[in-house]
Amino acid sequence: MSKLTLDRILQSQGFGTRKWCRSLITDGEVRIAGEVVRDYRVAIETGGLEFELFDETWPFREHVYIALNKPANFECSRKPSHHPGVLTLLSEQCSWRDIQPVGRLDHDTTGLLLMSDDGAFIHAQSSPKRHVPKVYAATTQEAVSDALIAQLLGGVQLHDEPAPLAALVCNRLAEHQLEIVLEQGKYHQVKRMLAAAGNHCAALQRTAVGALTLEQLDLEPGEWCYLEPHHLALLTDRLPGQ
Ligand code: URA
């Protein structure tokens, strides 16, 4: 970690322009270890730093790692065209940081969406070489048959793909519900695989990325949280039994 002046610290954490952050400090709004700090030029070690502002304690975060329970009708694009963007669901502070979704979910897909302002993390998570499994619960128009599961596990040919794509895991959850685990993140992959196998995806939810599940995070649709190191460790884990 490194030392930064207090105004730069506040700015880096998304509390506004440097000028605004300086005024917060000189107005006596910021406390460190219970003491008001009014000198914005003071250089402070950021490693392990916590400060108080607006009646809340804030840990210094060099980067942010976020999990959102994405509701339907939000777009992952940075320039959304038909629906509001997922970034609008985050706090105002987040809007001051360069946060981007890790990969994309369709506007009508719900569930676990990761976001970060750490470019290396986004790149690593999105890289096909990482083989991070993504778990989806798909509601199907036609009943889930053994033949459908066999087809998805055996591989289905999609247009524009050089080779058939297969699910890593595929389980029937209910008559019209299927759990499908994919290693790749191709455009509309679940919907296209189901269509190629002769069914139709009526609704889609992402329930896990790696071993990090939506259930563990306990987020209502539209809610988000910061991911802590123990959550991030789960992103590199394989699923049980793999
Ligand atoms: N597969 C899809 O078809 N859509 C998504 O949003 C994610 C995976």
Describe this structure in words.
The chain is an alpha+beta fold and 242 residues long. It has three domains: 3-59, Structural Genomics Hypothetical 15.5 Kd Protein In mrcA-pckA Intergenic Region, Chain A (Roll); 65-128 and 211-234, 2-Layer Sandwich (Alpha-Beta Plaits); 133-209, Alpha-L RNA-binding motif (Alpha-Beta Plaits, 2-Layer Sandwich). It is 23% helix and 27% strand. It is built from eight helices and 15 strands. The chain has helices spanning 6-12, 18-26, 92-95, 119-126, 146-154, 189-196, 214-217, 229-235, and strands at residues 3-5, 31-32, 35-36, 43-45, 50-53, 56-59, 65-70, 100-101, 110-116, 134-140, 169-174, 177-182, 201-209, 212-213, 224-226. Strands 7, 8, 9, 10, 11, 12, 13, 14 and 15 form a nine-stranded mixed β-sheet that branches. Strand 5 and strand 6 form a beta hairpin. Helix 1 (6-12) crosses helix 2 (18-26). The two termini are 36 Å apart. Residues 105-106, 109, 188-191, 204 line the site of uracil.
Tell me the distance between the termini: 36 Å
Roughly what percent helix?
A: 10-25%
Q: Biggest β-sheet, characterized?
A: 9 strands, mixed
Determine Rg (CA atoms, Å): 22 Å
Q: At the third CATH level, what is the topology name of the largest domain? A: Alpha-Beta Plaits
Order of helix and strand elements from N to C terminus: EHHEEEEEEHEEHEHEEHEEHEH
**Domain unit count:** 3
CATH class of the largest domain: Alpha Beta
Determine the CATH superfamily of the largest domain: Pseudouridine synthase I, catalytic domain, N-terminal subdomain
Q: What's the count of strands? A: 15
Principal-axes geometry comes out as elongated
Mean pLDDT: 93
The fraction of residues in strands falls at 25-35%
Which structural class do you get from the secondary structure elements?
A: alpha+beta
Number of helices: 8
